[in-house]
Write a structure and sequence with these properties.
The structure holds two protein chains of two kinds.
Chain A (H helix, E strand, L loop, with lengths): L4 H77 L2 H8 L3 H15 L3 E6 L4 E6 L2 E3 L17 H14 L5 H10 L3 E6 L1 H7 L11 E11 L5 E10 L4 H11 L2 E6 L2 E6 L18 H9 L4 E7 L2 E11 L5 E10 H63 L14 H67 L5 H27 L7 E3 L1 H15 L4 E7 L6 E3 L1 H19 L3 E12 L13 E10 L6 H4 L19 H11 L3 E7 L3 E9 L8
Parallel strand pairs in A: 13-15
Antiparallel strand pairs in A: 1-2, 1-6, 2-3, 4-5, 5-6, 7-8, 7-11, 9-10, 10-11, 12-14, 15-16, 16-18, 17-18
Helix pairs in contact in A: 1-9, 2-3, 4-5, 9-10, 10-11, 11-15, 12-13, 13-15
Chain B lengths: L1 H14 L7 E7 L4 H14 L3 E4 L5 H10 L5 E4 L13 E14 L7 E2 L1 H9 L16 E5 L4 H9 L12 E4 L2 H10 L3 E6 H4 L5 E2 L1 E2 L12 E8 L6 H11 L4 H6 L3 E2 L6
The chains are: A alpha+beta, B alpha/beta.
């Protein structure tokens, strides 16, 4: 069914919803896209910040690693100070023994150099790496006074001298040793380290950064025997940092100035050591770092990659910058994670979009089904009405829709019902009109026939009556022939009247019509009738003044009323009440009473009613037939009401009868009133 | 056949007069004051030649108490009182002699007398140079015994203010009497403390305390040398020895051994 309302509803419904859904999906996707990108950004930032935090944490660990290394050095130094054989051998100048001992324990403890002085500050023994040396073996200064750069040794010596000179008690001396900073970081120059015998490969051109500790060597009785200085180079100290790196994948670099002296965590796994030259730190960054009191965050380029780093300056015991320690994580890991985040975000977003589209499609499908259902529910009544009216068009409907729904279709069907009702009424009227027409035609035919006959008959009658009159004149008065001829004349008179009536009946035409004030005519007629009707019959009247005229003949009106009165009188057989009333009425457009047979407009209603025996229902239809009478033969001609009917027809009105057996009958005559302005 | 041989041996024992078997008394315990016990033993032997007194090496006072308490030995020698947790052994504690606890130095130290305060000063670390107490210019090398040592306990108990301040950490701790004495003999400038009887014959110089020498009965710092035993074992030779040791007859022997008689009456 192309172009059906149902399809229209469905299409419009579905189209609207599709549009809405598409817009919705689009907006949501767009928002999603935005948010995802935002999220990815935020996450990336979070991640970077976290990484910096992590690096910071690792950095703290590597710093503490240095601290623990220093602690180790200090402990070693301390162990030497408590080692009474050393004290004894110092006192006894048994340098071989000391040297042997230092060799072994240095290797054991991974200490890079040791210096031992006696209480007079004279160098007793030294070791560099795994070798021990007596004074003179190496080109080392022979006296403690020449070791200014070893601040720790000088500090300890001061305490020692105070004790030896009895300026302080041994307890005070011990307390001071505890309080003083007898361990820390120093920069040592190349020459000194070379003279110590330290492994050349460990020393950069600029020398080395070392962790040193010093202490007073005492014998069993805690009597000072000398001073010991121990040191551990940080140059090439990759291993401690390496194990940390292995565990955490963090990279560490220790710088002396801008050159890396120790590092770990840069191997890409192919056992290829990284070239230290690629780890050099920019002088600007180095300077910036050393000026800060706290760890500095930065992004450094190391071994060709970018690293997120935290760096701390290392100061020696004189508070001068000695080096920098940096802990880093490769940025590319983070970048990879960021990419992955973004990628995941995007694929999540796509996933959600797909879902949205899928849901949208499903929803549209559901909407189509729903739309169908809804549309059907709307249009089915309509279809019923349509089917119904089609049947009506074919004339096959005799019932009504009787819809009770409140919507427009309900109203429509109720209107259709009303229309059908009207149609039925109109049909009825039509039928009635047709009946009337038939009747009228019948009447006309009869009238014409009767007229013709009457006319002829009149002529015959005229001859008959004429000659009879003449014959009557020829016979003597009182003779039986004269009596017989009188009877003939009486009969002939009656025949003449009848013929007159017939002629009146058949000659009713519209020629002599003029506006007639009906109410006036009625008053006149009724007045006349009162005088002629037997007094046993009461007459009541209610003739209203109507300021309108009827296009009629006054004689006709006169005849009409007289005939009706006559009929009533005859029905009541001498006693009763006849009422006559006249009023103006309006036949409304939607009138469905008997007036429906009339054209809409204004009418005068003339009612003549009696309280006689009434009229039997079977004969009501035949009341207005010519020659129809209920009286015995010779009592009436049966033309009275026919004449009335003819007059009413001629005037374009209507006559109706109501009757109730035993109660009486009422005749209603409706005559159309002329339009006020003009005549037709 | 064996039975017959055994029977003959048995009869032979009866035939020959049984020689008087020499009784052995083993006294275990402290290493303190061995000389005292030796001298008492010598004196006792003169009167009881058939009884031998054995004085094995030191197992400490505690070791002695435990050994006697567990019936491993009949008699012990102690240089301190019975502790509360040793009371359950129900041993009799019989003081025999007083063992003076003395301070002694390496012969190179030119000091022979120290006051109470000086000792305290030295052992607390405040005085750390011999010069401060009238000696030469040298750091005082302080030697002390391990915690729980009997002579240390005596000092802590009876030496006024000794326990007020902790012994200086700048000291060397020794763990036996012989080690201590040897150290002081060999090392100049050392000072240590211990039982007089241990050191009186060695190459160390015993210091007077506030002018009072160790052999003076008025010497204030001493441990008590005592015998411990179970009453039920106080029979026969043991009883004889115990009674002898507790009697005033041992005064001379005690003195010879470097101790002082137990104070019973004013002497």
């Amino acid at each position: 069914m192309k172009g059906s309302i149902k399809n229209k509803i469905i299409i419009s419904f579905v189209t609207t919803l599709t549009v809405i859904i598409c817009v919705y999906v689009f907006v949501v996707s767009w928002q999603l896209h935005q948010k995802t990108a935002e999220q990815a950004d935020l996450l990336a930032q979070e991640l970077t910040s976290q990484v910096y935090d992590t690096v910071g944490g690792y950095h703290a660990v590597t710093i503490s690693l240095l601290d623990s290394l220093l602690e180790g050095v200090e402990r070693y130094g301390l162990s030497l100070t408590r080692h009474s054989p050393i004290a004894a051998t110092i006192v006894r100048q048994q340098q071989e023994s000391i040297v042997e001992f230092l060799q072994i324990s240095a290797v054991k403890e991974a200490i890079d150099f040791t210096l031992i002085f006696n209480v007079n500050g004279e160098l007793q023994a030294s070791s560099g790496g795994s070798r021990g040396y007596r004074p003179g073996d190496r080109n080392l200064p022979a006296h403690l006074d020449q070791y200014h750069f070893l601040t720790v040794a000088n500090t300890v010596d001061a305490i020692l001298q105070d004790e030896l000179q009895f300026r302080i008690t041994p307890q005070e001396s011990a307390a001071r040793e505890k309080k003083s900073a007898l361990h820390g970081l120093v920069r040592l120059d190349h020459a000194f380290l070379k003279n110590l015998g330290v492994d050349q490969s460990k020393i950069a051109d600029k020398g080395a950064i070392a962790l040193v500790a010093a202490g007073i060597v005492r014998d069993d009785f805690y009597i000072p025997a000398g001073i010991v200085v121990v040191g551990k180079l940080l140059n090439g100290l990759n291993k401690p940092f390496q194990s940390f790196s292995d565990a955490t994948s963090v990279a560490t670099v220790l710088y002396m100035d801008t050159a890396p002296i120790a590092f770990a965590g840069f191997n890409s796994g192919e056992n290829e050591a990284v070239d230290p030259a690629e780890l050099v730190i920019s002088p600007d960054l180095a300077l910036a770092i050393s000026l800060e009191n706290q760890p500095t965050k930065s992004v450094m380029t190391l071994a060709g990659d970018r690293y997120i780093s935290t760096c701390t300056p290392l100061q020696d015991m004189d508070q001068t910058p000695a080096g920098i320690l940096c802990t880093s994580l490769p940025e590319k890991q983070i970048v990879a994670i960021q990419q992955s985040l973004l990628h995941h975000g995007m694929s999540t977003q796509k996933g959600i979009q797909k879902w949205l589209v899928a849901i949208g499609a499903v929803m549209i499908l559901i909407f189509i089904i729903l739309a169908r259902i809804i549309a059907t529910s709307i249009t089915r009544p309509l279809e019923q009405v349509v089917a119904f009216t089609m049947k009506v068009g074919e004339g096959k409907v005799f019932h009504r829709l009787h819809t009770t729904s409140g919507d427009e279709i309900g109203t429509l069907s109720r209107s259709i019902d009303a229309m059908l009702d009207n149609l039925a009424v109109a049909q009825q009227r039509n039928e009635k009109l047709e009946d009337r027409l038939r009747l009228a035609k019948k009447m006309e035919a009869i009238g014409t026939l009767a007229g013709g006959i009457a006319h002829e008959f009149n002529n015959i009658l005229y001859a008959m009556l004429g000659y009879t009159d003449l014959a009557r004149e020829d016979v003597p008065e009182g003779s039986s022939t004269r009596t017989h001829l009188d009877h003939v004349l009486q009969a002939g008179e009656r025949a003449r009247k009848l013929v007159q009536q017939i002629l009146t009946f058949s000659h009713q035409r519209e020629e002599d019509l003029e506006p007639v004030k009906v109410d006036a005519v009625l008053l006149e007629v009724v007045a006349w009738l009162r005088t002629t009707i037997p007094s046993s019959i009461e007459v009541s009247q209610d003739i209203q003044t109507v300021n309108r005229s009827v296009l009629a003949d006054a004689a006709m009106i006169h005849q009409l009323v007289v005939n009706l009165f006559t009929n009533a009188v005859q029905a009541m057989s001498g006693k009763g009440l006849i009422a006559i009333s006249a009023k103006a009425i309006e036949r409304a457009v939607d009138d469905t009473t008997v007036l429906a047979a009339l054209h809409p407009g204004e009418y005068i209603e003339i009612t003549v009613s009696d309280n006689g025996p009434g009229i039997e229902p079977e004969i009501i239809d035949r009341l207005f037939d010519p020659f129809f009478t209920t009286k015995e033969v010779g009592q009436g001609t049966g033309m009275g009401l026919a004449v009335v009917h003819g007059i009413v027809d001629t005037l374009g009105g209507l006559i109706t009868v109501e009757s109730e057996l035993g109660k009486g009958a009422s005749f209603h005559v409706y005559l159309p009133v002329m339009a006020e302005e003009s005549l037709s | 056949m064996i039975k017959g041989v055994l029977l003959i041996c048995f009869f032979m024992l009866y035939l020959f007069p049984a020689p008087v078997k020499a009784e052995e008394i083993t006294i275990v315990g402290t290493g303190s004051g061995p000389l005292i016990l030796k001298e008492i033993g010598k004196a006792f032997r003169q009167q009881n030649p058939d009884i031998t007194i054995n004085v094995p090496r030191s197992i400490g006072s505690g070791g002695g108490i435990k050994a006697v308490g567990n019936d491993e030995y009949l008699i012990g020698r102690v240089a301190r009182g019975i502790k509360d947790n040793e009371k359950h052994y129900n041993l009799t504690y019989l003081p025999i002699a007083r063992v003076p606890i003395v301070f002694y130095v390496n012969p190179n130290v030119p000091v022979d007398n120290l006051t109470n305060e000086q000792i305290i000063g030295i052992y607390s670390g405040k005085i750390f140079d011999w010069r401060e107490v009238g000696g030469h210019n040298a750091r005082i090398k302080v030697v002390r015994r391990q915690e729980g040592d009997s002579s240390l306990s005596v000092l802590l108990q009876s030496f006024p203010h000794f326990k007020d301040s902790p012994i200086t950490e700048f000291s060397k701790t020794t763990y036996s009497d012989p080690d201590t004495i040897e150290l002081v003999e060999k090392t100049p400038d050392t000072i240590a403390f211990g039982a007089y009887s241990d050191v009186m014959k060695r190459k160390v110089a015993v210091l007077k305390m506030d002018g009072v020498s160790a052999i003076d009965s008025a010497y204030p710092y001493y441990g008590v040398f005592a015998l411990v035993f179970k009453e039920k074992n106080r029979t026969g030779g043991l009883k004889a020895f115990i009674d002898f040791a507790a009697s005033p007859a041992t005064a001379g022997a005690i003195k010879k051994g470097g101790g002082l008689p137990v104070l019973m009456s004013a002497e």
